[in-house]
Design goal:
Strand order of the largest sheet: 5-3-14-7-12
Oligomer: single chain
Radius of gyration: 19 Å
CATH topology: Immunoglobulin-like
Structural class: mainly beta
Helix content: under 10%
Order of helices and strands: EEEEEEEEEEEEEE
Shape: elongated
Number of domains: 1
Number of strands: 14
CATH architecture: Sandwich
Length: about 170
Amino acid sequence: MTYHGHGLGRPARFLLRSRAGWRCFLGLVAAGAIAVSALPAGTAFAGSLTLQLSPGNILFPDASPDLVPVIGPVSVLVTVKATGRPGYPWLLTLVANSDLRSGPDVIPISALSWTASPNPPFSGGTLSVVTPTVVGSGIAHINTVARFDFTMLNSWGYNAGTYTATATFTLSAP
């Protein structure tokens, strides 16, 4: 039995797992960025961006690949708010900081993918550590909650361990 701790207001979780068991933990981070071109003197700020995630972490449980070849979905709600003058674009990207790691053991981050709704303006894809993936875009104004349902390919090739990685959603106005 492994104790995995608990957060405020959440019960402690205890997971019974086999010797070949593993857990996959993906921390999600929200980042906001605004790129504003030079504005004439006295011109008001061109727009604003707000990005929130709930929850900030997702957990894929141990499961037999024979019975569960794809684990999930595990949902993340992403609140996206972009305001600005007409024609003001916004862009939401997602990129992982690394593959999933547990000591020397690795699960490729490309084993994780997602679907998104509403589609459009949000879209599904596969996690990458190389290039930020565009997961949503449009022209301001938007004020919505998108749902990202993450899944993970399961394999007997994953060694026992607790695997972790971080992925970052970035909302920008290019």
